[in-house]
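Predict structure. Chain length: 147.
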Amino acid sequence: MLLQQPDESPYDVNFQLFGFPIRIAWTFWLGAAVFGWYLVQGFDRMEGSPGRLPLLLLWALCMLVSILIHELGHAFAFRQFGIESSLVLYHFGGLAVPRSTNNYGGFASSFARIFRPRRRHHWRSREIYYRYGLGRRLGRTAGARQV
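Prediction complete.
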């Protein structure tokens, strides 16, 4: 499949950060170079430019940090619900890949707990809408004194 994590290769960079295994595929660096090439050419024309290679390395570093921070957000959200995950950075960006589940019954039940409707609050919000929202449309508010 096109958007799944790439196969591991001996050229990948592997390390851990905050307890998450992180793999940077060699295609990430290739993608960073391709995406940054025209940007680097534009900055290289400016006076005082350090050259294309340092600019390209700076671009790749900025991509690495920004995508890593983004994917860490997903990984911390997984961890909050007891799901261990690993991160993969590759040519299309990054992935937070869930690796295990918790005692709550897994991924689906953890998110079902969040989105379970709270009936009492649901009906209370409807009551507020009908009293004030609909009342305003009719030109009066329920419970307000008419003078």
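Summary: Residues 52-80 form the longest helix (29 residues).
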